[in-house]
Amino acid sequence: MKLRTWLVRLALGCIAAGALVYGLTHGKLSEDEPKPSAPPASLSIWVYSKGWEDMVHAFGQRYPHIDVQIRSFRSYEQLYTELLASISAGAAPQLAEIHSFYGVAQLAATGAAMPAEDILTAGNPTFLPAFSAAFRYRDEDWAVPFGGSVPVLYYREEPFKRLAGRAPALGTWEEVRQTLLLAKEPPGEEVSKGYGTMTVDKELPWFLASLSYAPKETGGPAAERTRSALELWRNLTHESKLMNPLQHDRAASDFINGKAGMYVGSSDKLPTIERYIGGKFSFDLAKLPTWKQEALLPGVHGLAVLKSDPERLKAAQSFVQEITAPEAQSALWNTVGLIPARTDVLAKLEEEPALSERLRRILSWIPSLAGRAPQYDDYERWKRTERMLEQIELNPQEPVEDARMLY
């Protein structure tokens, strides 16, 4: 009996010793083996404008544990319509580039967007009031502005200087018309027919609204301003024949290729124009000529944050902080021409001695910017204005519909 008990104890002791040796050896080896890295956080961003590659690359270097998936759209309208569909299907991205033109109020009404105050951390930057106002609906901000642009008039310098004997005066639309007519029918001088025409970029409702914008004016007076801008449009297309109808999709290329003497476009097109003209001819830019407007109406780019799980939401917050950092704001200005949204960055830019005269001129217009508050039916108004302008360009007798329902 005692022998059996001793044998049992001996066996148990061997088992314990073996377990101890295994733990010391195998356990030590396990500590030396590389542990599997945590799965990366994913972040889905939908964008429509250019220049995101460098921004995403810089973000990836700073946050290597976040896997950023960018989906690019050919236009803001396509992104906006697909964004609403994705929200309905429960498949929305975490971040979406949104424009001040339309869609802010409708996005807020879906309940899928988060107020910007919930995303920006304490000590968040101060943005240009006109940029912030573009995303403020029912006392809350529904996107974080990261840049913007203003409507400007680009023009070829040499033909107008040669014909007028000086730099052209382009402060009003009457002066624009007189300058273009001079190039269209030069006195005893051979000038390209294209010099006497102007072209307007495809964001037509923005330019129309800018020609008549008064920040605090609504109702009948605002409608009358819009009607006056429509009559100017009709005159440029038909009476003066200074603007070819329905050529807006190729407006920038027509100017770059010398087929138009003037071009109404956005200030963020300046880097593209400079690159493609490349010294082929001299050009300059002026503030959008005065018609009935009392302020400049900016076009603002922002990031809307859609509700998600805590991990993706934290990744979205990191990206918003990255794009609104001073370094990123300066990079957007230098590479894609977007006016920075941060007031402190703008103050530093204005002090740069090497800033070009064109860029300095654009910055000088910032005090005249006014914010346009979003409305729920902005998209419908935008499309209605596009149709109205198209009909006016096609038919000089086209009656103006209710101007209060236009953008």
Automatic annotation (TrEMBL):
A GO cellular component entry from the record: cell envelope
Localisation per UniProt entry: Cell envelope
InterPro entries: Bact_solute-bd_prot1, SBP
Protein keywords: Signal, Transport
SUPFAM superfamilies tied to this protein: Periplasmic binding protein-like II (SSF53850)
Superkingdom per UniProt: Bacteria
Pfam families referenced in this protein's UniProt entry, alphabetically: SBP_bac_8
Record family assignment: Belongs to the bacterial solute-binding protein 1 family.
Name this protein carries in UniProt: ABC transporter substrate-binding protein
Organism of this sequence: Paenibacillus tyrfis
Lineage: Bacteria, Bacillati, Bacillota, Bacilli, Bacillales
